[in-house]
Design brief:
By secondary structure, the protein is mainly α. Helices cover 67% and strands 0% of the residues. The chain has one domain (5-139). It has helices at residues 5-11, 13-23, 32-45, 47-52, 55-68, 72-75, 79-89, 94-106, 123-129, 131-139. Helix 2 crosses helix 7 and helix 7 crosses helix 8. It comes from Streptomyces zaomyceticus.
Length: 144
């Protein structure tokens, strides 16, 4: 049986956080702390996102998932999510990684976002912020 939470894990805020953590492990990638600050900036600038999924709810979901680690319920979560999560955690136990991520999100400093001069817009942040512009630009002919 598919849990309703699985959709959030597969394609919601927790999934985006895991994707950012995984991407930050790549050589030359921005540190996770910078990516989390960008994520926080994006969420705060979008009142809809902040209303639907406030930071406290995100941290609670991560804590709840950490509590599930090693249980049958966790084993029933989407395999693709569990795989990405394990790779994002690296050598750290998944439950400890989730709790650490939840603490970072819960930390009041998480809500204090630097400006673009201090922390430039990343490619993923630009795509998230300016989806309509990016979609329009992709329709323009190239090579002219």
């Amino acid at each position: 049986m598919t849990e309703p939470t699985d959709a959030v894990l597969a394609d919601g805020v927790p999934a985006r956080l895991v994707d950012l953590a995984l991407a930050s492990r790549n050589p030359g990638a921005a540190p996770l702390e910078d990516e989390l600050q960008r994520f926080s900036r994006l969420m705060q600038d979008s009142h809809t996102i902040a209303w639907v999924m406030p930071f406290g709810a995100v941290a609670s979901l991560l804590d709840g998932l950490a509590d599930e680690c090693g249980t049958e319920r966790y084993g029933a979560r989407p395999a693709a999510f569990r795989d990405r999560l394990a790779r994002a955690a690296g050598d750290e136990p998944v439950d400890a990684f989730l709790r650490a991520l939840a603490e970072l999100v819960r930390d009041p400093a998480f809500g204090v976002c630097p400006g673009y001069g201090e922390l430039p817009l990343s490619q993923w942040e630009a795509l998230a912020r300016f989806g309509i512009v990016n979609e329009f630009a992709s329709q323009l002919p190239t090579g002219e």
